[in-house]
Design brief:
single chain; 85 residues; globular
Length: 85
């Protein structure tokens, strides 16, 4: 799992996001959004603060989820992270 967390951090940094990011925390927050959802494709949002939030798209499969993308909204700036690329 540590490699997955590092990959998440790397993709987010490569998208230009300059803030602190913890791959484990990010994964857990997205995973929490997937919990108890039926199979399908979902748009989700995670509010981190008054000026920082994540909005993304994931597909819920039988026993897992596939994160397609996340847009990190930091004030007026949006960083698009494509996890399918």
């Amino acid at each position: 799992m540590e490699e997955l967390y590092r990959l998440i951090e790397e993709k987010i940094r490569n998208a230009g996001y300059p803030g602190e990011i913890d791959g484990r925390e990010f994964y857990n927050e997205v995973s929490d959004e997937a919990d108890d959802q039926e199979e399908g494709t979902y748009i989700f949002g995670i509010k981190k603060s008054d000026t920082l939030f994540y909005q993304g798209c994931m597909e819920i499969l039988k026993n897992q989820f596939d994160l397609h993308y996340v847009d990190i909204h930091d004030g007026e700036t949006v960083y698009h992270v494509d996890f399918d690329a």
